[in-house]
Design brief:
Blueprint: H1 3-9, H2 50-62, E1 67-71, H3 74-82, E2 90-94, H4 99-108, E3 115-119, H5 124-130, E4 135-141, H6 153-163, E5 166-170, H7 175-178, E6 188-192, E7 206-210, H8 213-226, H9 232-242, H10 245-265, E8 269-273, H11 283-289, E9 296-301, H12 306-313, E10 320-321, E11 331-333, H13 345-350, E12 358-361, H14 367-378
Parallel strand pairs: 2-3, 2-4, 4-5, 5-6, 10-11
Antiparallel strand pairs: 1-7, 6-7, 8-9, 9-12, 11-12
Helix pairs in contact: 2-9, 3-4, 10-14
This protein binds ligand P1T.
Length: about 375
């Protein structure tokens, strides 16, 4: 079955009691049992809920996995993965990654004795050099947030296999339409469902998808034990969002290409970070492992002056200044003070994240209007 058909049908069956074509919102905390242990597979909604089950199955199908697990937020999904580890274990991760992930790793889990090394994974030699006998997890984001670096997932998977450790890929920026890490050898794929999967800026949620039954069982144990599960209304909204994921990602990518080309040709713009440019350092890898290049773009201005960047950030009319990404409407953000403020400045600068970097989430509006908005803001 091709992707668009799966996006509309996977995981979803007509409701067995009424035939309702759309999965009902099972707004219930508990389920009546005929006798102790005699139930229909549902006991308590932290553990299982039919609306969540439908969404988990849909996400598993879209990522070509066998098991989907939904969490209250993207951070809760990553939290569950790190809880597979124990004190003394080590994680090798991307040096360019969402600030909240960096904060969870360094400010929460380092306190429990897990060690993290952050390297530029766009060169796999850096990953290999950071591995130690204690490395139990390689955690990658690709494309990375916010510098849009591309990491070779197949190459990472080969390193993880040699090491005998897990490979997890945060696939938030690509979405399962553009890239399927499990097909490239990853053990776990993670999403901030908040972004492209939900797609309408009205839900915060996270998800994991895996192939391996034993790994799924350990994660389901953590999902239920730690309890950061989403409610049925949010699951319903994401089920609705998924039905147009393929169409939205096609348009995000088309609009992304137009906006990236406009920025690259603008006399006031310095660097443009977008993996679709043949000049991007990892364009060949992006072409190989992604279907298209998406709608996330970062850029800096010539002269590198903070007041110029701040003027652009507060001058757009269609692009709204806000955290998050992946919704139908275009957003722009300032990573240094917003999404990546929890990373110490010297670390940000060392990893190439300038104080003046501007990040765009290009939405689904008409591309000409988006370009005109940036044109007037840059003017
Ligand atoms: O916000 P939450 O659903 O908990 O997801 C966290 C998360 C994880 N991974 C990546 C790659 C992300 O981008 C995020 C959240 N990011 C933003 C809010 C942002 O504006 O970048």
């Amino acid at each position: 079955m091709q992707f668009g058909t799966k996006a509309i049908h996977a995981g979803v069956e007509p409701d067995p009691t009424t035939g309702a074509i759309m999965t009902p919102i099972y707004q219930t905390s508990t389920y009546v049992q005929a006798a102790p242990g005699d139930h229909k597979g549902y006991e308590y909604s932290r553990t299982h809920n039919p609306t969540r089950t439908a969404l988990q199955n849909a996400l598993a199908a879209l990522e070509n996995g066998r098991h989907g697990l939904c969490f209250a937020t993207g951070m809760a999904a990553i939290d569950a993965v790190v809880k597979l580890l124990k004190p003394g274990d080590e994680v090798v991760s991307t040096n360019d990654l969402y600030g909240g992930t960096y904060r969870l790793f360094t400010k929460v889990f380092e306190g429990f004795g897990v060690k993290f090394r952050f390297v530029d994974m766009s060169d796999l030699a850096n990953v290999e050099a950071a591995l130690s006998p204690n490395t139990k997890l390689i955690w990658a984001e690709t494309p990375t947030n916010p510098l849009l670096r591309i990491i070779d997932i197949e190459g990472l998977a080969a390193l993880a296999r040699k090491q005998g450790c897990l490979l997890g890929v945060d696939n938030t920026f690509a979405s399962p339409y553009l890239q399927n890490p499990l097909d490239l050898g990853a053990d776990l794929v993670m999403h901030s469902v908040t972004k492209y999967l939900g797609g309408h800026s009205d839900v915060v949620m996270g998800a994991l998808v895996v192939k391996d039954d034993a790994l799924a069982e350990r994660l389901a144990f953590l999902q239920n034990s730690c309890g950061a599960t989403p409610g049925p209304m949010d699951c319903f909204l994401v089920l609705r969002g998924l039905k147009t994921l393929h169409l939205r990602m096609q348009r995000h990518s088309e609009n992304g290409a137009v906006v990236a080309a406009f920025l690259a040709a603008h006399p006031k713009v310095d660097k443009v970070y977008w993996p679709g440019f043949p000049s991007h350092a990892n364009h060949a890898v992006a072409k190989r492992q992604m279907k298209d290049f998406g709608g996330m773009i970062s850029f800096t201005l010539k002269g590198d002056r903070m007041d110029d960047a701040l003027r652009v950030l507060s001058s757009t009319k269609l692009f709204s200044l806000a955290e998050s990404l992946g919704g139908v409407e275009s957003l722009l953000g300032h990573p240094a003070s917003m999404t990546h403020a929890s990373i110490p400045r010297e670390d940000r600068l060392r990893n190439g994240l300038a104080d003046t970097l501007i990040r765009l989430s290009v939405g689904l509006e008409d591309a000409g209007d988006l370009v005109a908005d940036l044109q007037q803001a840059l003017g």
